[in-house]
């Protein structure tokens, strides 16, 4: 099953989500509307709202509440992108200039705040305390994950455990909230809610692990961003952490120095060390392990087209090239 097949399963619901997103982007301040529309409509795959819709279908009902939750999740995700691009001083995302590159840092941060606020206005309309609890916790964990990543920048002593804490917070948490929130919205049994929470978490981990592989192996045009950004920013992601733990003294020293100074001057030499240590294969295997755990969590669900799609989506996350 391909992503297009999965999207076709929830095509009408996705259309309703898009309509609601466009309605909720309305603002009395033209620049807010302009920037928000630019980033929301800039070609993202919208995997997180897709997870809300698929989970709802797998549990037997996808109504207006699920559509609203999917839009909320997309607004939260978009707000984090606006803030991330400012923090990372990124100039390209999804093949387009970032909002901060076009309009500056201050408007980008403030429009991100607008989207956060709008998402919580919509969340109040859902009037579901359990979902509110999940999403309010999620926004805190995401912020903590981003701050933790910031403290690790240019720190070659970052451990694999610390790295996993970062990606759990900054990426996997919102995947988890998408599936867990949908199950909670439908008042699914506690064990089903936990299974969907686990599925979302493991899917998110796999997604970010592959992102970090593609930062070194990907194609800039396919990815829609600059290859090597992580090394340029001095971010010690898993391929580098594994290489430092397994390289000889010379290789370890090279990678450590490259992380400390940032930039791409040593990219080729670092990649040689990474390849010799099998660090890309190690990172991909970690992603595959998460996929297996995600699929195992789905065993609790009854068979359905939506369940099959969720199983396939986990594989797609680990096999993607962009």
Q: In CATH's first tier, which class applies?
A: Mainly Alpha
As for the CATH topology, it is Farnesyl Diphosphate Synthase
Runs with pLDDT <50, length 5+? none
Strand content: under 5%
Shape: globular
H/E series, N to C?
Answer: HHHHHEEHHHHHHHHHHHH
Proportion in helices: over 70%
N-to-C CA distance = 18 Å
β-strand number: 2
Q: Number of DSSP helices?
A: 17
Global Rg: 20 Å
The side-by-side strand order for the widest beta sheet comes to 1-2
Biggest β-sheet strands, sense, barrel? 2 strands, antiparallel
CATH architecture: Orthogonal Bundle
Number of domains: 1
Keywords: Magnesium, Metal-binding, Transferase
Pfam families: polyprenyl_synt (PF00348)
Protein name: Octaprenyl diphosphate synthase
EC number: 2.5.1.90
What attributes does this structure have?
single chain, 322 residues, mainly alpha, Farnesyl Diphosphate Synthase, 17 helices, 2 strands, 1% strand, globular
What would you say this structure looks like, in words?
It is a single chain. This protein is mainly alpha-helical. The protein has one domain: Orthogonal Bundle (Farnesyl Diphosphate Synthase), CATH 1.10.600. Helices cover 77% and strands 1% of the residues. It has helices spanning 3-9, 11-24, 30-40, 47-58, 64-87, 99-103, 105-126, 129-152, 160-185, 190-217, 220-223, 229-232, 238-246, 249-261, 267-276, 279-297, 305-319; strands at residues 92-93, 96-97. It has a two-stranded antiparallel ribbon. Helix 5 (64-87) packs antiparallel against helix 7 (105-126), helix 5 runs antiparallel to helix 9 and helix 10 packs parallel to helix 17. The longest helix is centred in the middle third of the chain and has 28 residues, at 190-217. The model has no long low-confidence stretch (mean pLDDT 93). It catalyses: 5 isopentenyl diphosphate + (2E,6E)-farnesyl diphosphate = all-trans-octaprenyl diphosphate + 5 diphosphate. This is Octaprenyl diphosphate synthase. Its cofactor is Mg(2+).
């Amino acid at each position: 099953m391909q992503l297009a097949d999965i999207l076709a399963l929830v095509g009408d619901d996705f259309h309703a989500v898009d309509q609601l997103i466009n309605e909720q982007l309305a603002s009395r301040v033209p620049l807010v509307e302009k920037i928000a529309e630019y980033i929301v409509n800039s070609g993202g795959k919208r995997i997180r709202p897709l997870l809300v819709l698929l989970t709802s279908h797998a549990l037997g009902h996808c109504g207006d509440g699920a559509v609203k939750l999917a839009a909320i999740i997309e607004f939260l995700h978009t707000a984090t992108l606006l803030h991330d691009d400012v923090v990372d001083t990124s100039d390209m995302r999804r093949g387009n200039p970032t909002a901060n590159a076009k309009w500056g840092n201050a408007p980008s941060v403030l429009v991100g705040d607008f989207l956060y606020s709008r998402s919580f206005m919509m969340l109040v309309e859902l009037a579901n305390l359990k979902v509110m609890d999940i999403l309010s916790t999620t926004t805190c964990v995401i912020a903590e994950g981003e701050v933790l990543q910031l403290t690790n920048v240019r720190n070659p002593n970052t451990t694999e455990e610390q790295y996993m804490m970062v990606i759990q917070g900054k990426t996997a948490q919102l995947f988890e909230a998408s599936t867990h929130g949908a199950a909670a919205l439908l008042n699914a049994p506690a064990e089903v809610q936990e299974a969907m929470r686990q599925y979302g978490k493991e899917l998110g981990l796999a997604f970010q692990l592959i992102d970090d592989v593609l930062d070194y192996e990907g194609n800039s045009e396919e990815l829609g961003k600059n290859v090597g950004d992580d090394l340029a920013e001095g971010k010690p992601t898993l391929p580098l952490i594994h290489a430092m733990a397994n390289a000889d003294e010379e290789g370890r020293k090279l990678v450590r120095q490259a992380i400390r100074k940032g930039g791409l001057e040593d990219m080729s030499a670092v990649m040689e060390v990474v390849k010799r240590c099998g660090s890309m294969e190690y990172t991909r295997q970690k992603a595959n392990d998460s996929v297996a755990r995600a699929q195992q969590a789905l065993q609790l669900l009854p068979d359905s087209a939506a369940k099959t799609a969720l199983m396939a989506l986990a594989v797609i996350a680990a096999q993607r090239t962009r």
